[in-house]
Amino acid sequence: xxxxxxxxxxxxxxxxxxxxxxxxxxxxxxxxxxxxxxxxxxxxxxxxxxxxxxxxxxxxxxxxxxxxxxxxxxxxxxxxxxxxxxxxxxxxxxxxxxxxxxxxxxxxxxxxxxxxxxxxxxxxxxxxxxxxxxxxxxxxxxxxxxxxxxxxxxxxxxxxxxxxxxxxxxxxxxxxxxxxxxxxxxxxxxxxxxxxxxxxxxxxxxxxxxxxxxxxxxxxxxxxxxxxxxxxxxxxxxxxxxxxxxxxxxxxxxxxxxxxxxxxxxxxxxxxxxxxxxxxxxxxxxxxxxxxxxxxxxxxxxxxxxxxxxxxxxxxxxxxxxxxxxxxxxxxxxxxxxxxxxxxxxxxxxxxxxxxxxxxxxxxxxxxxxxxxxxxxxxxxxxxxxxxxxxxxxxxxxxxxxxxxxxxxxxxxxxxxxxxxxxxxxxxxxxxxxxxxx
Length: 438
Ligand code: SF4
Ligand code: SF4
Hints:
The chain contains 14 helices and 17 strands. By secondary structure, it is α/β, with parallel strands linked by helices. Bound molecules: iron/sulfur cluster (2 copies). One iron/sulfur cluster (SF4) binds next to α10 and α11.
């Protein structure tokens, strides 16, 4: 079968050799975890605990009645030492439950699980909501909301996103190899939840072992197939994945449900299986620690709320890092503090040496058109960037700033090193603030 793909995009070096062959390892617990009460798209949670309370691993510590939100849970047993704003990976402060980790780790009573066969669509949505599951590829959109489309938007196809197209990241690849059965059963639950009949596992061609293993697992299962994808960035972006797999285009400003599709990340699909069949909340995740400035690049399983500093120490520490990035190098966030916690959407921690960081500032646009040629959303990043740089955000909106999903392709190809994503983010913040006022 030939590898499928979308139009435009780029082919950056994959840099996956350092961690790709390494099994996911458990790491030692830190002394303290920080559970942000807002680590998802939607409304923040209210705290359900106070300073001095003892909590058990898996106990809910934050929730809200808002539809678009997801509860948060203690990832460890311990004592609540603070409920206060703490640094978050986006550079802001987020109200957080800080837990001093107990020596003895006891687990809260979890809701009873149901088998894949006996769970009803309502059981699945309820379990997913209660477990606080959000998209683990980085976007952190509440999964229970995605599983509840309006009646006039039926979902026919579920796509499991095994693209992992960002350089350096390998945790989804390892998840597919080490948790293949859980992922396939999780996919069956997703199909049942939305009443879909087809399931596609989209996997980039640089993971032939995962393609072979999942193909073997789904052989003979009705409506399930593996779709090998071309290695290209951003192949793992929702709209690009749908175009490659289903040859359907999601209209600007619309969601995958418009074309009858639901996309879920590999880690999220495994979390759905664990929530429904074991009642397990989302309190840990696999992530990749890599980059030339990390002593021992590896894939690790980390309790949510673990400080980035602790995770790096468990990987031999960093040496001569000029930058530490949370997420992949294309869409990740550079950090000013290593005290920020790993959250549900953290797919990687990268330590970048000085030779990989460009110290020079950006120049004016030379109108080469490269960003236009490569933008997978067919936007004009040059115009959006120029208007946003000048503070003319309404014009940036006219040129489609809100349709940009911040993949970073335009900044990667720009010879003038223009920080086009940052320009877009400024424009979006202004546009959203104006919309809220109106
Ligand atoms: S404008 Fe947005 S969508 Fe287009 S390449 Fe740039 S970051 Fe990606
Ligand atoms: S790639 Fe950079 S220099 Fe070229 S048109 Fe786009 S913004 Fe301008």
